[in-house]
Amino acid sequence: MSHVTTALSDYPKSPVTLETEYDPALSRWLWLVKWLLAIPHYIALVLLWIAFLVVTVIAFFAILITGGYPRALFDFNVGVMRWTWRVAYYGYGSLGTDRYPPFTLADVPDYPAHLDVVRAEQLSRGLVLVKWWLLVLPQLFVAAIFAGGFRFAGGLAGLLALYAGVSLLFTGRYPRGMYDLNIGLHRWVVRVMAYAALLTDDYPPYRLDQGPSEP
Predict the structure, then answer these.
(1) Is 179's pLDDT higher than 60?
(2) 195, 131 contact by CB (below 8 A)
(3) In the chain, domain spans
(4) Of 108, 102, 103, 49, which is closest to residue 80 (Cα–Cα)?
(5) Does residue 158 contact residue 93 with C-beta atoms inside 8 Å?
(6) What whole-number distance in Å separates Cα of residue 54 and Cα of residue 47?
(7) Rounded CA gap, 37 and 30, in Å?
């Protein structure tokens, strides 16, 4: 075990972090109506993701010309990803919390789901031409299988969340192993999303880091 721990510690830290807090006391039935409660968020996210795509196109040209991702654009796109992750964590991406997600792009320290991306001062002008459609292509297939793409509410992760909901309904508990795997799948997809959205030049590792905390 010590050999494995040492080997994992040798991996470079990802600039994309996703962390959560496991809640052993979730409601048995609330997950059945979260689709309704989250409708205001879904409406907001449709508009935010349209803006996300526009901002990404602008950032593409900014990186190509200047070699940097403008800070305001970077913060906005990370904020959209953060908001999306909180809603998915509350809803049918994970069912990991019963706390209603806040309506904000900013990180909320006391909310049990967090996402962040470290901004690089300089990004490759060459990579920006190919990483979002060519280099990331194998990872997009993985993301589609793991979480239904970038929706955070489908694929294997969505299936695990459904099983977790059934478990909550009948036993009142969210199996910890199922939870850890679900978060690991989302962590992988978030890294792919950040790379595809030009937020980082660090290629997503083919590594399933399970559990609430980053390795």
Answers:
(1) yes
(2) yes
(3) 15-196
(4) 49
(5) yes
(6) 11
(7) 10
Which two three-digit tokens encode residue 55? 């901002």
Please tell me whether residue 116 adopts helix, strand or coil conformation: strand
Phi, psi dihedrals of residue 17, rounded to the nearest 5°: -120, 140
- Ranges of beta strands (E only) in the chain are 16-20, 113-117
For residues 68 and 77, what is the distance between their CA atoms, to the nearest angstrom? 15
Question: Which residue, chain included where needed, has tokens 């320290």?
Answer: 109
Give which of 35, 27, 34, 20 is closest to 183, Cα–Cα. 20
CA distance 43 to 174: 28
Tell me the pLDDT tens digit for each residue of 117-153.
999 999 999 999 999 999 999 999 999 999 987 778 8
Give me 51's structure tokens. Answer: 């803006």
Residue 10 has pLDDT above 90, yes or no: no
Averaged pLDDT, 33-47: 98
- Give residue 73's Cα distance to chain centre: 18
Bridge-partner residues for 16, per DSSP? 117
Strands of 113-174, DSSP E: 113-117
pLDDT category of residue 200 using cuts at 50, 70 and 90: very high
- Per the listing, tokens 């036993």 go with 171
Query: Does position 56 have pLDDT exceeding 50, yes or no?
Result: yes
Q: How many Å from the N-terminal Cα to the C-terminal Cα in the chain?
A: 15
